[in-house]
Structure formats: structure tokens, C-alpha cells
Write a structure and sequence with these properties.
Layout (H helix, E strand, L loop, with lengths): L6 H8 L5 E5 L5 H14 L8 E4 L3 H11 L6 E2 L1 H12 L11 E2 L2 H14 L10 H13 L4 H6 L4 H19 L2 E2 L1 H14 L1 H10 L2 E4 L7 H11 L5 E5 L14 H4 L1 H4 L4 E5 L7 H11 L28 H15 L18 H11 L15 H7 L1
Parallel strand pairs: 1-7, 1-8, 2-3, 2-6, 4-5, 6-7
Helix pairs in contact: 1-2, 2-3, 4-9, 5-6, 5-8, 9-10, 9-11, 15-16
């Protein structure tokens, strides 16, 4: 089980008692460490599987971990999955809810907000769009702000209007025995805080807690883990502050930076050996990321010496950038499959210029995680 691990990975697996923070650099084998740690708890320490809580960032990650472990875990999944299970059992203890509650998706939430805006005569107000209102409500919930608390902190007319909409939105959800995804965390926290016997039950049950992508947790997720880990404190968090990319939707980088303050007896293990990239790529990455002010110091290294050097190309416009990328693809495609090329951009709106150039050059491409610009409904409607 441990033979394939390097020294630091093995150290992280074997430290099972007490708080542990694993700072896992990109490509350092963190999933292997997490799955091996769970297998070790099950096989070597004879821990019952229902006493292990493993929280992942996506359902896909949970399925991958179970596949690698080779066993089903009763309590593995995303925060929403875990909270959903707890709420189905106990939400009736909260006023206004029953166990057959429904979960509103994006379309349901938007419909509720549109109805509220229409009733208030704000449906034509460009400053108060359903998307903006839901974004503000989501951010408030990530910070665990109730409608009253959000209203108390409102500084502008728009915020005051959103505060009123937020209150009505929550009233409507409760009237319909409905919750949104953010509510699932907040209501679980409320349930545990108001029912000490339920909290004690889960604190006792979850003897070992593992949290993946800890750098991307928000305040509500942090609070939930703090509650559940309070008794045994066998909490293992895995993350990398250099890979914090979700601050725009409430992720709080201080959760991982302050872990040692929350748990003064915590052990910290750095996974710095990279198995994915060559030395030149890592040297470039280290040189860039070291300029970040809020980070745990580490230095990625690899046994894959050398490698092609990274190029930094500065163009005069986004069109020139797309043309340069297309020129590069055409120059290299005689020797490489198109499957070996990837173009990354920060937001989906940036895909259009690349799509235009690729289409003109007749370079076939596949868009991942989005819809081709010219296949989007609103674009097709305009072109028709």
C-alpha cells in the first residue's frame, strides 16, 4: 500500500491522529495520498467506513476516490451532498421545513426573483437584474449573512433594494418548503447549532475527517467543518493556497492560511515533488507564484530535468493573440495531432476571437465546458 509513495506522501498517510494540513503542489499526487490514507484507515487501523467523512469539491472527484479506494464510502461527497443527507434526516427540527423539501436549481431561483421584481415594478430596472440579485444573495450566504444582516450592512440604494428582495426570496422558499444550494450549508449549520444532541451524534460518528481543496472553502463550509471536527480533531485538510481560484464566489484563502492558528498542534506536510511537468515549466511557475503575498512557502521540484522552455509572447490586441495561436498550431500540426494542443482563457467570452480565427483557417476545435459562440441560442437568434 505504501510502497509507491515518496517519503512526504508516506508521512502524510501515516499521521492519522490529530490535525494535519497537507500543502499539495500541482501534480504532487495529492489524490493518491488521500485515497491511500483512507485505505490505510480502513485496512490497517480497522476503522469502520461510516466513521470517515471525506469531503470533495466535485462529485467526479468523489467517484474517482471511491474507484481508487476500491470500496464504497457511506460519507464521501461534496459539501452539498453531505448536507443534503443530514437535512433529509433532521430538517423537520427547523421551523417551517419538512423532510420532503425540494431543492431549487438556477432556473427555479431565477423564476422566483423575476416574480419578486415584477411585483415590485423593478423588472425593467437594468441595475437590478435577476442574475445580479442572485449573485449578491449567493455572496451573502457564503459569508453567512442573513437578510437582516445583509440589510444592516447595505450602503447603497441598490444594496438596500437587494436586501428587501433577499428577505422576500427567503420567505417564498420557506413557504414552498424549498431550499437553494447555499441554504443547504446554512441550514445544516443552523440545525447543528440549535440541536446539541444532533451535533454530538455526528461529532462522535465522524472520527476522521478529510477535506479536499481546502483553499477553496468559504466561511459556511469552514464553519461546518469546525463544528464536526471539534471532538476528535482528526481532521486532514488538503489544499494549495497557490491554486486559490474561487475567491470571486466566496472562497476564503485565510481558511487554509490560518489552519495552524485554529489547530496549534497541527502537523504540516509539504508535497513539493511534481510528477507532471518538466523542470523548466516548474521553474517558471515558481518564479511567478513566489510574488504572491498570501501564501505558504514551498518550492515545486521534479526529477524530469530540462524540457522545452516556456515562451512569453506579448501581442498588441486579442486578434493578434488569436492569429499567433493559429499560426503556431498550423506550424506544428504536421508533426503533432490536434489533440495535443490546448488553448486556455480566463472567461468564456474570450473564446469568440479564437473561434473566429480557427473557423477562417479551417482549424477544427472542440470547446470544453461551454457552448460554441455561434451555437449559442441568442447568437443563433440574431443571425437568423
Amino acid at each position: 500500500m505504501l510502497e509507491t509513495l515518496n517519503a512526504k506522501q508516506k508521512e502524510a498517510v501515516l499521521h492519522t491522529e490529530g490535525p494535519l494540513m497537507i500543502i499539495a503542489g500541482a501534480g504532487s499526487g495529492k489524490t493518491r495520498v488521500l485515497t491511500t490514507r483512507i485505505k490505510y484507515l480502513l485496512a490497517e487501523k480497522n476503522i469502520f467506513s461510516d466513521r470517515i467523512l471525506a469531503v470533495t469539491f466535485t462529485n467526479k472527484a468523489a467517484r474517482e476516490m471511491e474507484t481508487r479506494i476500491g470500496a464504497k464510502l457511506p460519507w464521501i461527497g461534496t459539501f452539498h451532498h453531505i448536507c443534503g443527507r443530514i437535512l433529509r434526516r433532521h430538517i423537520h427540527l427547523l421551523s417551517g421545513y419538512s423532510s420532503n423539501y425540494v431543492i431549487y436549481d438556477d432556473a427555479d431561483q431565477t423564476a422566483v426573483i423575476k416574480n419578486i421584481l415584477r411585483a415590485q415594478g423593478l423588472d425593467e430596472n437594468k441595475k437590478i437584474t435577476p442574475a445580479k440579485v442572485l449573485q449578491q444573495i449567493g455572496q451573502a450566504k457564503n459569508k453567512m449573512l442573513s437578510p437582516q444582516e445583509y440589510a444592516a450592512g447595505a450602503q447603497y440604494d441598490v444594496q438596500e433594494m437587494i436586501a428587501k428582495i433577499y428577505r422576500q426570496y427567503q420567505d417564498i422558499l420557506r413557504q414552498n418548503n424549498a431550499v437553494d444550494f447555499d441554504d443547504m450549508l446554512l441550514l445544516t449549520i443552523e440545525l447543528l447549532q440549535k440541536n446539541p444532541e444532533i451535533l454530538a451524534r455526528y461529532q462522535e460518528q465522524f472520527e476522521y475527517i478529510l477535506v479536499d481543496e481546502y483553499q477553496d472553502t468559504n466561511r459556511a463550509q469552514y464553519t461546518l467543518i469546525q463544528l464536526l471536527a471539534a471532538k476528535h480533531q482528526n481532521i486532514c485538510v488538503v489544499g494549495d493556497n497557490d491554486q486559490n481560484i474561487y475567491s470571486w464566489r466566496g472562497a476564503d484563502i485565510t481558511n487554509i492560511l490560518n489552519f495552524e492558528q485554529d489547530y496549534p498542534q497541527a502537523k504540516v506536510v509539504l508535497l513539493e515533488q511534481n510528477y507532471r511537468s518538466t523542470a523548466n515549466i516548474l521553474n517558471a511557475a515558481n518564479a511567478v507564484i513566489k510574488n504572491n503575498s498570501l501564501r505558504k512557502e514551498k518550492n515545486l521540484w521534479t526529477e524530469k530535468l530540462g524540457g522545452e522552455k516556456c515562451s512569453f509572447i506579448l501581442t498588441g490586441s486579442e486578434t493578434e493573440e488569436a492569429v499567433y495561436v493559429a499560426d503556431t498550431v498550423e506550424r506544428l500540426r504536421a508533426r503533432h495531432s490536434l489533440n495535443n494542443f490546448a488553448v486556455f482563457y480566463r472567461i468564456n467570452a474570450q473564446s469568440r476571437i479564437f473561434e473566429d480565427v480557427f473557423n477562417k483557417r479551417q482549424i477544427p476545435y472542440r470547446l470544453i465546458g461551454g457552448v460554441r459562440f455561434y451555437a449559442r441560442k441568442e447568437v443563433k437568434d440574431i443571425l437568423a
